[in-house]
Amino acid sequence: MGYGTYLLKRxxxxxxxxxxxxxxxxxxxxSVMDAEARARIEEQIRQEFARLPPEQRAELLRNQTKYRLxxxxxxxxxxxxxxxxxxxxxxxxxxxxxxxxxxxGESTSVTGWNGERDVATIILQRLPNTILLFTxxxxxxxxxxxxxxxxxxxxxxxxxxxxxxxxxxxxxxVPMWWVGMIMILVFSYQLKIFPSGGIQSIPPxxxxxxxxxxxxxxxxxxxxxxxxxSIGGWAYVVRNVVIDIMHEDFVLVARAKGLPExxxxxxxxxxxxxxxxxxxxxxxxxGSLGGAIITETVFKWPGMGMLYWTAxxxxxxxVIIGQTYVFIFxxxxxxxxxxxxxxxxxxRVRVR
Length: 352
Description:
Blueprint: H1 3-50, H2 54-62, H3 64-82, H4 88-100, H5 119-154, H6 159-171, H7 176-190, H8 209-246, H9 249-256, H10 261-288, H11 293-298, H12 304-313, H13 317-345
């Protein structure tokens, strides 16, 4: 199978998976959205009834038939407005198409920086903060962890390997938010080197370079925290993958030929270890776009994770659903990217 045909099949498969998963998610969320819309309708009817003139309210309360007709008329009006008069399958298909076009409607309580209610706009405002924190940290962790993992595998059983393994065990035994609280306690309240949270000083600095430097100043402590917690596990995973491959026959043959150890490691071992390492890198980068709910909350960092927490706390269903759809799209895109990379790294996968 040629690479073009392989790529076309993978793109079509990814689109089918995206549509199917979005459809299933919409079916699951439609009942929740309908219940939330009906509760909103009841609240709007109560508010509208409270705004009626006193004599009209008294008349409706005396005459239950008139009140029922008035109530049913208002309920019907709002059901048409919210699309609840349409069949269930129609609402599911309509919301699926809207989700695929990144149209998530308006939030009920969460707002954007300037009071925006559009869910897509709110998500796009929070996404850059998460990218600068977690995606930047993931890139740094990947580079350093790859280097340390290769060095530890090359010196298996020696001091560097033991230190890497112990550090990986320790760093993965404590939650990131707990380390974040310790970092805030030490570097913010004791040493007073970094701010305890947020993305901007109060009062804010002048526009331009001072604003950028102030943003980086607030970014430093959470970024260092994420790197400290994540780097040990990354190095340990790379170390184990590389050690397994270093015992393969083709590596032993390369060494028997008298090739330098650096060439054996970087040309033979690392090339064979590329698929699993690339998988971890891509999934880590995509996963970083979702942020971390508790960590961002600890540092008061207004990213995707804190947005999720705020939406859950305020029961803002449209925002929760919008972020869920965005994560679905990102993960389907990640697996498509992995398929494309695998087709380049290992031509054998194209025959499937």
